[in-house]
Amino acid sequence: MGLFERDTEIYRDRDALREDYQPAELVGRDEELRTYRAALQPVINGEQPNNIFLYGKTGVGKTAATRYLLEHLKDDAAEYDDIELTVVFLNCDGLTSSYQIATRLVNEFRGEADQISTTGYPRASVYEMLWDELDACAGTVLVVLDEVDHVEDDSILYQLPRARANQNLGDAKVGIVGISNDFSFRDDLSPKVRSSLCEQEIHFPAYDATDLQKILEQRVEVAFHEDVLEPGVIPLCAAYGAKDAGDARQSIDLLMKAGDLARDDDTDVVTEDHVDGGRRALERGRIKEGITGLTQHGHLVLYALLTLELEGDAPIRSRDVRPRYTRFAEMADRDPLVPRRMRDHLSELAMLGIISVTERNEGRRGGTYREYALDMDVDLILDAMEDTVRDVGVHGSVQDFLIRGDAPDDNGAGQHGGSKGFDADRSDSASDDDGGRDLTNFGD
Ligand code: ADP
Ligand code: MG
Fold this sequence. Notes:
By secondary structure, this protein is α/β, with parallel strands linked by helices. It has 3 domains: 30-203, Rossmann fold (3-Layer(aba) Sandwich); 215-290, Orthogonal Bundle (Helicase, Ruva Protein, domain 3); 294-440, Arc Repressor Mutant, subunit A (Orthogonal Bundle). It has 17 helices and 8 strands. The strands form 2 sheets. The chain has a 5-stranded parallel beta sheet, with helices on both faces. The chain has a 3-stranded antiparallel beta sheet with strand order 6-8-7. Helix 5 links the parallel strand 3 (140-146) and strand 4 (173-180). The longest helix has 21 residues, at 272-292. Magnesium ion binds next to helix 2. Involved in regulation of DNA replication.
């Protein structure tokens, strides 16, 4: 037997659960699709297209609906000899300026050999190039700017819809489809941009659990073999996506995680337990991403709280976290932040769901104060801020976790060889020996 053996007892087509899969039909979006289709109708009539603005939270089908309709539009436009339709689809994630958008658009139109670099041209000349490319398309051009809320200046959103009115274009009829996950983006646009970009607005509401069940049922048909899911699996995945965001992506991701866990278990049934396990894994992934994305001061605050928690001092007030934080910052060669800024980091950690906050009453004086405690498992946190732990050194309270982390099933937390230990002569304050003397070099 080879080292690799095909195991597809569960999945018929696992790729159908991936982000880049486009379903052949959309479930339960009839009304939105009707409005959207009507907004695109001028294209088929050979008229100047509307600018369309789509908004709604993440995972509610905006991108899927756009791809679905534009595919149909291209096919149907091909039936008419007098319609020349070009569609450019650009996701603006990672693009922050109009300049970047404009260069990317120019390159979308150009061949491999004529690409322009994304820096170095004056903005006006990039726009000139863009108008030339658009004009070269002659007929109708639809420019889709997905996740357009990433763009921080609105120059392109003003220039593009007006290119024709400003006589920058000859024959090309340009329409823009802007898609935003962020409700406030539209309101923050200047009135002149809003009126041209948002000629037709289409709102995609969040899905409820019933909607999500239907979407999942459709996807399961494609992705899984018949009868491999326990009856509770789809409702659980639907409930998860509906819980805080009405996000179909979350539901589908969970279903895939559950399927993968079942596959790892070598069974051909996906159970509710697999869904539970999948939920925990996704949650861990989310938290880990959150921690990784923090600044080093965020990590230092978290590290301080983590060690205090392990020593049994939490829930704990901000001012009592402070000495430990200050010392950790110094050990990492960073200037400690002022108390208020340090507290901001505690609030941010709480917002991410990594730590918990309890509001307490001061007693007779009537004021309130907050106490913080850890809300996540230690291994996960240590793993996600590995670099900071290395810079500060390994505190005695976490040593066991890092050693345990050396076990073969580990996720990398064990690779701390060479990290520096604590200076045994220093502690948070003269009177408070916090265990600093137990500190030793890890990895020696
Ligand atoms: P958005 O662009 O609004 O963030 P997407 O269009 O990317 O959301 O949808 C998220 C995922 O859910 C995609 O994998 C998509 O295929 C799927 N999806 C969303 N809505 C539907 C629907 N109505 N029918 C089938 N699949 C859907
Ligand atoms: Mg999208």
